[in-house]
Structures are given as C-alpha cells and as structure tokens.
Write a structure and sequence with these properties.
CATH class of the largest domain: Alpha Beta
Number of helices: 9
Number of strands: 13
Number of domains: 2
CATH topology of the largest domain: Nucleotidyltransferase, domain 5
Distance between the termini: 11 Å
Helix content: 25-40%
CATH superfamily of the largest domain: ATPase, nucleotide binding domain
Structural class: alpha/beta
Strand order of the largest sheet: 3-2-1-4-8
Order of helices and strands: HEEEHEEHEEHEHEEEHEHEHH
Radius of gyration: 19 Å
Largest sheet: 5 strands, mixed
Length: about 325
C-alpha cells in the first residue's frame, strides 16, 4: 500500500531530526512577525562506522553511539514528542517513471507503480515500502517520482526515535528536503536548477523544473569518478534527454566536510556557471543571529527543508517520502 496519503495529510511536525552517517542534527521553527525562524538547533557528530547507510543491510553498527547523539540533540531542542525524520538517500532507490495512461483509481495506480519499480528492486518487492508524487505532465504521459525502501531499514530509523521518546510522524530523504529548503527561500528558482548534495560516501544530483524534480541520481563515492565528472554527465543527460536550456542556479550542499572551495571551483569550471553553497537561512533565519559556519548550514538544510515542506504547494510536491 502506498503511504502517499499519510505523508501529505500529516500536520507539520514540531521538530525535525536527521540521522546521517557523520552526524545527528535537529531543529525547531517558530513564527516571528510572519517569518519562519529556527528557534532551536543542535548537531552532534557520529564516530566513523557508527551508522552506515545501506539499502539492504543493517544501518546502525553502534546503536549506543547513535542513540546517545540523538538523545543529546533532542534534549537541546526541548525534547519534542513528535518529529519529522530525515534519513540518508542511500537507503532508498528513487526512480522517475512515466505512464502513457494513468489509472483513475488510486489502488490501480499504486499497483502499476509497484509493478514498474519491482524490476530494479534489490530485494523482494513485498519487503519494500513505496511512496510517490506526481511529476511533469508530458504529451506522451505522466511522470511520477517514486521512492522505494526496505521496510525493515525504515523501521530501524523509526525505532531509534521511538527509543528516544520521539515519534517519527514523517520520514523522508535528505536531498528532497534540501530541495525544499531552497524552494522555501524568498529567491526560489523559477527556471531549471541543479542541486549537488554531497554526503559522506555518496553524492545525489537533483534537477528541478518548476515544481517538479525531473532528474535524480545517487551515486556511491568512487575514486575513479570525480564529483565534477558525475555532475557533467548529469548535465549532458539534462541537455540531451530533458530538453534542458541551461540552469538558472547551481546549488552545492554538504561539501563542507571536504574542500568546499575546491569543489565549487571545479564545478564552476566544468559547468561554466556560478555555483553557490546552500544556505537554509534564506528560508528560515537562525533565531540567535550567530554567524553560522558552512558545516552547520549543511547540517541544518535538510531539517529546515522538512519543517518547511508544507509552506506551499510547491514544497509539498518535493517530498516523495518513504514513510
């Protein structure tokens, strides 16, 4: 059964938490004079190997370390009872599928989507959890952005929150919510734009057109295949297959863990355009007005994006969550 209705009907959570390979982060928002402001936030690093994202294997390799970091960030933001949970892209397979004719009945559409994605599922489809959202309507059919994750892996992350006293009412992927954070800013892109989201051992590329993701790729880090190569390959696909007319913006997120300046310069040379780094303060300023380091902005972008997911119909379209 698709979980689409339960995701989109759920009210906005009081707080959002991200469980990533390198850290646990959390934030809460409040309204001040009609402006969403980050009222509390926390980031706790994780030791190498404590949490290793995987689509098919157990992710938590040192449960005590992960649980301790999660408890600390929840304590810092006020021990919320209900949270939105952001989990790594690597635990899910994201596909864009197109159907010439879309069934009128939701159960029939769900069955068709499940049949389509089972071909590439790395586990029995009966063990999978699927969510989808409609995408571009084209002359030759309707696109859908589909997320497929192993149910036991999603439950592993949910259980960590439950043990810390927080119910994960929404579960969604990290890059989708960085997209939300960019779209929620006052200067949200109006034309096609590119997001490059670098994680500890993988990179996700998303291309967004209007209110729709039209391209998504997650690739594990490969010493023989540079970030610039991956982005260039994606840009060529965009031009050749997606009738791309050029990116209005290129946004880099997550690169603060390495040499962000070098990564940005390399991408600018390859794409021949300016590359900016993600800044969730453009959507929700930090309430304490303290200058934020790039690493903090990278850590906050997904959780801020999830908290702002229902600020407009545009943002809701970009949360093809997994639970």
């Amino acid at each position: 059964m698709s979980l689409f209705a339960s995701i989109y009907d759920a009210p906005a959570p009081a707080a959002a938490v991200e469980l990533a390979a390198t850290h646990v982060s959390a934030a809460t928002l409040e309204q001040r004079g009609g402006q969403a402001v980050v009222s509390a936030y926390a980031v706790e690093p994780l030791p190498d190997g404590a949490l290793v994202p995987s689509m098919t294997a157990v992710n938590t390799h040192n449960r005590t370390q992960v649980a301790t970091a999660l408890a600390r960030v929840l304590d810092t933001i006020g021990r919320p009872r209900r949270v939105g949970l952001v989990i790594p892209d690597q635990i899910a397979r994201v596909s864009l599928v197109r159907f010439e004719k879309v069934p009128a009945r939701t159960p029939d559409l769900e069955q068709l989507i499940r049949w389509q994605v089972r071909k590439s599922a790395p586990f029995p489809i009966e063990e999978g959890q699927i969510a989808y959202v409609s995408g571009i309507t084209a002359p030759d059919g309707q696109d859908f952005v589909v997320s497929l994750a192993r149910r036991s892996i999603v439950e592993e992350y949910e259980a960590l929150c439950a043990e810390a006293g927080a119910h994960a009412g929404i579960v969604d992927l990290s890059t989708f919510n960085v997209v939300n954070a960019v779209l929620a800013s006052a200067a949200a892109p109006g034309a096609d734009w590119l997001l490059i989201h670098v994680a500890a051992d993988s990179t996700s590329i998303a291309i967004v057109r209007g209110p729709h993701v039209i391209f998504f790729r997650n690739r594990t880090a490969d010493a023989d295949f540079s970030l610039a190569d991956l982005v260039h390959q994606s840009a060529m696909y965009y031009e050749d297959r997606l009738q791309g007319a050029g990116f209005s913006r290129v946004v880099l997120a997550g690169a603060s863990a390495g040499d962000a300046d070098q990564a940005r310069r390399s991408l600018e040379e390859r794409l021949a355009t300016k590359v900016e780094t993600v800044d969730p303060r453009q959507a929700a300023p930090l309430g304490d007005r303290i200058a934020a380091a790039p690493a903090l902005l990278d850590a906050l972008a997904p959780v801020v994006g999830l908290l702002l997911r229902d600020t407009s119909a545009v943002n809701r379209r970009h949360s093809a969550g997994v639970a």
